[in-house]
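User: For my dataset I need records formatted as: sequence, then structure tokens, nothing else. Please produce one.
Assistant:
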Amino acid sequence: TGMRVAVVGAGVSGLAATKCCLDEGLEPTCFEQSQDLGGLWRYTEHIEAGRPSLYPSVISNTSKEMSAFSDFPFPEHFPVFLHNTLFLDYLRRYTERFGLRERIRFGTTVVSVCKQPDFATTGQWNVVTEAGGKQTADVFDAVMVCSGSFSEPSLPLQCFPGIERFRGQYFHSRQYKHPDVFQGKHILVVGMGNSGVDIAVEASRVAAKVTISTTRGSWLISRVSENGYPWDMILNTRLSTLIKTKLPGPLSWWLTNHKVNKRFNHKNYGLQPENRYFLPVLNDDLPSYILTGRITIKPGVKEFKDNSVLFHNCPEEEPVDIVVFCTGYNISFPFLDESIIRVENKHASLYKYVFPTHLQKPTLAVLGLIKPLGGIIPVVEMQARWVSRVFKGRGANVSPKMQLSLDMFGLTFDEVLKTEWLLYLDTLASFIGAKPSVLGLLFTDPLLALTIFFGPCSSYQYRLGGPGRWEGARQAILTQWDRVLKPTRTRVPAGSSSSFSPLLAVVGFLVLLAAVIFGF
């Protein structure tokens, strides 16, 4: 029998983990506390404890070509950005396609994961689960933690003086489902992440007044980028990542800042961030809603009064009926002993954000904690491919290198990891021998090489070679733009769009050669 692996959770990460274990000939058992798969992407009207909670209008922030599993493109008729129901549909198709369902035990909660007494030699874990009120203990050779980071809301009320005397209603964004509660009211949204801005925009269609309070501002990106293309297919390319990472920090920041401010000047809208490193917010409506007076941006909250709020550096009080705290989530692993993953002030020591650094054996891994500016599926899938090979004893050996890189890879959840999405994918891909060689391809398949270098870095690139090679990868890369245009060119026949002109190809070839020679 193969090595037994326990997978905790059947969301995006858990499904990827289960599939990658099967690919490597391991024996995964996936435990899911609810009655269905999909994790974050499965909408339920009522809020369940310990489970993420969506509002019905949620749409993916990354486009379908940049969010796909690397050997399973989205159906071509799906829209480019996906409503949560379609995203869930895709996860179901993936589950059926790779026969994952029989590996999942629904209605089963993981109560605890502890080292076996002989852990130092075997690396085994004792996993206690509960189903139908009955507890069971099993021994597993390895564990993949895929329980996500959107279940425990962070609501630091102590940071908001006077909240105890506030007479209106307040709740965390996790409780939000429908905008009708805001009808005719004065709304304050605290925090400016993706949820905060989404909720503010929805509220402003029915509310009397909506204010967003943000201490640090934020860059704002629209899903619709240059020439109407999806933002991530323009931004996440090998060429632009090369430019961004090879430039000195301040210059790279200036360039990004310049690009982001071309659409609208963030200073004029009260949004220009002070801090350099964090994720931009994705929203298509906010600038026009600020311009039309539907939404006002204010600094941080100084204190709450009975029916109003005071902001820092603003003398006048603002009347408020409802406050929505969009203050994020705490990362917690209730089933793990503190000694396994130490989360101190939102800081955990995880090698490459995956392996706890002080375990004698690398037989426990955490997937999906990283929040890069790019699709999460390609990232968790790559983590799962690497981890399943480490478990099997074939992948990059983790132990000796771990100690060295700790200082470089301490992980703070709040400041967004300064990890460049593409670099992170490349790093893990190189561990398992799946990183595409642009130079190698330049002489054997120049069209593919140019598409990979100048075009969007879609995850299919990581299936061109190495373990888990997929026959359809080249075709998927060369037809990615067709799948983007198919759902929008509905009035005229969709032609092909990705063809390089011959001149462009020659210039591209030379630029690429130069890039390779000068250290890419």
